[in-house]
């Protein structure tokens, strides 16, 4: 048997719902630039970096801008986003998340964050979850966005655990693909039709138990 020794979690849409704040900031930027940015458009931004997200937004608006302007726009969006997340409280932790993290810790399973966000420390501090993680790898540590596996491979390295002994919890297709590319198991949080490449799909961490993790994730080794 290959035993799971570590769990790696995406942040947005898995631990907390900061996706709504990203959307509000991106939509605000789009309106300033003269076009509408819908929730459907926003789906394309899940799990990818800030600059890649900006490129998609500009594509939606049919705009081509030089790099200096794009950097300033990304900073403006992030400043608005930071204003929103500065008001976050522990009440915004998604259902079942804290309980599941504590269950893992109680069973000596290591825990890491693997997020494209550059604001993960601020968010985790505001909601009171920093101490629940053994390692935090985010947009400040990585150079390649999901579906590149870099963020999860770095997380496993920080934890001192082999990739095949890790499970990734993700709400985005790009994140599930990153887990697969890293040689890890994956649990999708959300729509089974979108996350159909995951080993398991649940609606939230409230559904997760060690029994479910063991029975559906463990596999026979060579």
UniProtKB/TrEMBL annotation:
It holds the Pfam family Hydrolase. The record marks 115, 146 as: Important for catalytic activity and assists the phosphoryl transfer reaction to Asp8 by balancing charge and orienting the reacting groups. CDD domains: HAD_BPGM (cd02598). Binds 2 magnesium ions per subunit. Belongs to the HAD-like hydrolase superfamily. CbbY/CbbZ/Gph/YieH family. One of its GO terms (biological process) is carbohydrate metabolic process. The keyword Magnesium applies. It comes from Clostridium polyendosporum. Its cofactor is Mg(2+). This is Beta-phosphoglucomutase. Keywords: Magnesium, Metal-binding. The active site is at residues 10, 12. Substrate binds at residues 10-12, 26, 45-50, 53, 77, 115-119, 146. The gene is pgmB. PANTHER family: FRUCTOSE-1-PHOSPHATE PHOSPHATASE, GLYCEROL-1-PHOSPHATE PHOSPHOHYDROLASE 1-RELATED. Mg(2+) binds at residues 10, 12, 170-171.
């Amino acid at each position: 048997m290959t035993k799971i020794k570590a769990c790696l979690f995406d942040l947005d849409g898995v631990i907390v719902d900061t996706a709504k704040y990203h959307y509000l900031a991106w939509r605000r930027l789009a309106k300033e630039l003269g076009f509408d940015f819908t929730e459907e458009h926003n789906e394309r931004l899940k799990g990818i970096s800030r600059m890649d997200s900006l490129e998609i937004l500009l594509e939606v608006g049919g705009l081509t801008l030089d790099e200096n302007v794009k950097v300033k726009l990304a900073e403006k969006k992030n400043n608005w986003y930071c204003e929103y997340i500065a008001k976050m409280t522990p009440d915004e932790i998604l259902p079942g998340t804290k309980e599941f993290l504590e269950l893992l810790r109680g069973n000596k399973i290591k825990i890491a964050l693997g997020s494209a966000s550059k604001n993960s420390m601020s968010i985790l501090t505001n909601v009171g979850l920093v101490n629940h993680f053994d390692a935090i790898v985010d947009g400040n540590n990585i150079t390649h966005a999901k579906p590149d596996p870099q963020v999860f491979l770095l997380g496993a390295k920080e934890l001192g655990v082999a990739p095949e002994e890790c499970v990734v919890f993700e709400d985005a297709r790009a994140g599930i693909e990153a887990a697969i590319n890293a040689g890890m198991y994956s649990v999708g949080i959300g729509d089974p039709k979108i996350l159909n490449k995951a080993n398991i799909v649940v609606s939230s961490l409230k559904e997760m138990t060690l029994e479910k993790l063991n029975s559906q994730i463990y596999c026979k080794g060579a």
